[in-house]
Amino acid sequence: MSQLFSPLALGPLSLTNRIVIAPMCQYSAQDGQATDWHTIHLGQMTQSGAGLLILEATAVLPEARISWADLGLWDDATEAALSKVLTSVRRWSNMPIGVQLAHAGRKASTARPWDGGRAIAPDQENGWQVMAPSALPYLAGEPTPQALDEAGIDAVVAAFVKAAQRSVRLGVDLIELHAAHGYLLHQFLSPLSNQRTDAYGGSLENRMRLLLRVFDAVRDAVPASMSLGVRISATDWVDGGWDVAQSIELAKALEARGNHFLHVSSGGLDPRQQIPVTPGYQVPAAEAIKAQISTPVIAVGLITEPAQAEAILKQGRADAIGIARGILYDPRWPWHAAAALGAHISASPQYLRCEPHDVRGLFDVSRSD
């Protein structure tokens, strides 16, 4: 039996297979509100046969967005817009859907990637004052972030809680806290971006404090039936920065608090990063962390071939596989993986006629919508 197409539990949430569509920003929201683009995009993703879809980074405050076009979940309008999209998508798919709650910190207030992606100053159109652990910009010459005071930190925690409560009302199956890719919670973790001298800076314990506080607050605010996990960057790929050893300590602390899964990525915090981009380049970090905890670990990063994904799981290096750019390029990647690995996969009845003659039995009709 294919390991990639075997069931997996992420706490209270059961997946039919171990393919996870990782969060991918679409930069297509209006004032934080989901649009028709999200209906189109998420509609095709939920027809892919993956075991789980996690929505793009969803800002918990307007100033938490990466760009002015980012998705948000901070008020009734953003909640209603996302509810409309999810209602449409769920009408045609029973795929579990999660949301990634995020705060971009000092990497907020930028242009869309296809418009250059550069930082936008607070006094320019579509710009605002960004926040961070310390008054250190991501790039020299960019607007200086404002260091969060204790009241600001309290407001961030409260915003994550409120967004999580809205997520529960939306009926999502899973919440992922975004502590990766150089965004706010990652900024607090790394000594490269966090030079505070208070209870949130200095020691590893202090630098982990905000993420653990957010996790505890969200955990206490959502029902026990909600799967709750964290995405981290396992390393900054910069000497003296956040690294795998510290990630292991964080993973242990989260596990002690009841974390249901850990989604392991890397980088994004510092422009000096030196990343050896090769197939599966982030898997060794996921493997090292997995060896120290019992929490399910999702590996991601240039995992593009079905046999490659299968081998990672069979070798015990991770528990699930995150697919991102690869599934944008091939929205039926899970179908093709099932065919290659001799597995079965569910498909909506509208698509059953496309089953190729040489893989009869690929579609599991009993699990089709």
What average pLDDT do the residues reach? Answer: 97
Rounded to the nearest angstrom, the distance between the terminal CA atoms is 23 Å
Largest sheet: 8 strands, parallel, barrel
* SSE succession: EEEHEHEEEHEHHEHEHEHEHH
Assembly state:
single chain
How many beta-strand elements?
A: 12
Radius of gyration: 20 Å
Q: Roughly what fraction of the amino acids lie in strands? A: 5-15%
State the shape: globular
Query: Which ranges are low-confidence, i.e. pLDDT below 50, for 5 or more consecutive residues?
Result: none
Widest sheet: strand ordering: 3-4-5-8-9-10-11-12
Would you mind describing this structure in some detail?
This protein has an eight-stranded parallel beta barrel, surrounded by four helices. It has helices at residues 36-45, 76-90, 150-170, 184-189, 204-221, 244-256, 283-290, 306-314, 325-329, 333-341, and strands spanning 8-10, 13-15, 19-21, 52-59, 97-102, 131-132, 146-147, 174-179, 227-233, 262-265, 297-300, 320-323. The protein is of the alpha/beta class and 369 residues long. The longest helix is centred in the middle third of the chain and has 21 residues, at 150-170.
Topology:
Layout lengths: L7 E3 L2 E3 L3 E3 L14 H10 L6 E8 L16 H15 L6 E6 L28 E2 L13 E2 L2 H21 L3 E6 L4 H6 L14 H18 L5 E7 L10 H13 L5 E4 L17 H8 L6 E4 L5 H9 L5 E4 L1 H5 L3 H9 L28
Parallel strand pairs: 3-4, 3-12, 4-5, 5-8, 6-7, 8-9, 9-10, 10-11, 11-12
Antiparallel strand pairs: 1-2
Helix pairs in contact: 1-2, 3-5, 5-6
